[in-house]
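Need residues for this backbone.
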């Protein structure tokens, strides 16, 4: 049995076509994913901004109630169970 196979000469047109298809596919995926990621980042930024706003509001309210009226907001909200742990 003869296992010798002659080497094929490289087809530069096929290689060029494959590289062109790769670049075109990457370009199209970048166009599509940019639209998707704009929405993902917008929603994530809104949620982070909302969480930070609620946390800072709670901290400011806690300190003002503690300083002005001597009311412990954490004890008022959670009761005795929170302080025993």
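Answer:
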């Amino acid at each position: 049995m003869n296992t010798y196979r002659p080497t094929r000469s490289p087809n530069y047109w096929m290689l060029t076509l494959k590289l062109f298809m790769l670049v075109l596919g990457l370009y199209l995926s970048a166009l599509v994913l940019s639209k998707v990621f704009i929405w993902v980042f917008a929603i994530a930024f809104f949620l982070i901004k909302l969480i930070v706003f609620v946390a800072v509001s709670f901290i400011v309210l806690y300190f003002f109630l503690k300083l002005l009226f001597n009311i412990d907001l954490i004890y008022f909200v959670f009761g005795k169970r929170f302080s025993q742990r």
